[in-house]
């Protein structure tokens, strides 16, 4: 059974890969430039630290 959402996401991924010649750094640089133009933070530079939970 085909999942339409998964298919759509994969199609978009393939288009982005082609647009940026499969270069992740070029894609990331484009995202950062778009973020500057947008004015709000769209991409984090590094992962957020995990929150430690207290043992119950």
* Structure classification: mainly alpha
Low-confidence spans: pLDDT under 50, at least 5 residues?
Answer: none
DSSP strand count: 0
Tell me, briefly, the overall form. Answer: flat
Estimate the mean pLDDT confidence: 85
Assembly state here? single chain
Helical coverage, percent range:
55-70%
Backbone CA Rg: 17 Å
Spatial gap, N to C terminus: 42 Å
Itemize the secondary structure elements and their pairings.
Blueprint (H helix, E strand, L loop, with lengths): L3 H16 L4 H15 L18
Question: What descriptors fit this protein?
Answer:
56 residues; mainly alpha; 55% helix; flat
Structural overview:
This protein is mainly alpha-helical. The chain has helices at about 5-20, 25-40. The chain is flat. The mean pLDDT is about 85.
Structure described in brief:
With 56 residues, the chain is an all-alpha fold. The protein has two helices and no strands.
């Amino acid at each position: 059974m085909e999942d339409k959402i998964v298919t759509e996401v994969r199609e978009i991924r393939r288009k982005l890969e082609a647009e940026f010649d499969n270069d992740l750094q070029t894609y990331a640089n484009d995202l950062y430039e778009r973020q500057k133009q947008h004015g709000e933070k769209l991409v984090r530079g590094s992962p957020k630290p995990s929150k430690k939970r207290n043992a119950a």
